[in-house]
Amino acid sequence: MEQLSESARLVHRNNIDLIEIDNRWSTATISLFGGHILSYVPKSDGRDRLWVSDAAIMDGSKAIRGGIPICWPWFGDLHGQADTSLPSHGYVRNQTWRIIHIQESDTGTQLQLAPSCVQGKGFLGEASLLLDVHVGDELCISLITKNLGDASLSYTAALHTYFAVDDIKHTELTGLSGEYKDKTQQFAIFQTPEPYRFSAETDRVHLCQPSSLSINNNDKHTLVHSEGHDSIVVWNPWADKSTSMADMTNEGFRNMLCVETAVTTTKVVAPNEKHVIVQRIR
Ligand code: TA6
Known about the structure:
The chain is mainly beta. It contains one helix and 21 strands. Pfam families: Aldose_epim (PF01263).
């Protein structure tokens, strides 16, 4: 174990390094494999806002099922290449990230992490990528893409957050409106339902940019604030997919809901410019 700062320590578990944070406001766990936040628990109520599969593979051999996977430099298979071997959701969630900076502030613990290799097969840009995390009375995650090249670069991305819910069948999502593309219906366009409840596999790209959403189940409300996005992705695999995925238990779908702050329409970043996607959770 290595003490990194007053509130943060580095521990090694099952072949991956974890940063464990315990400060005045909250606790959090971040895997350096994937730059992957696994847990965020405000001390005000002791409730983990994030969900990790009981069957998650935690040895660095596969992206961790749960927490906040970093999808970059593409979302899904939106890499624009003919190469079908390119990994879903990009390649940085399968890399070991390094700690760039950690500091304590009077509002929490601030960290900056970077992937080991930003360039990769399928990405034509020249960029730097930084994950800036603030762990306090809310969890603030910023994914910062900076164009270091002489030509514009294009990317898509998502903060693919798995939120914990008591029971998906008694969960409602508020704050979304307008049209969405339904991946379970060949991306046909539908209107956002009101109330927004869940009773089957749900895989939707909402084309609106709400700044604030709320995930409500019973008396628990998780607030999600987004910036820099062009869409919000909502996903629950439901029973069949949950059963078919090796890193999900058959009943795993009941206690999770992905609400993802995403860029799913190609974002162009000019030379020396940067683009930031932000998700704040409380
Ligand atoms: O964000 C929703 C989604 O694109 C779903 O279609 C499903 O594939 C999910 O991501 C999980 O993807 P993964 O590659 O982590 O299994």
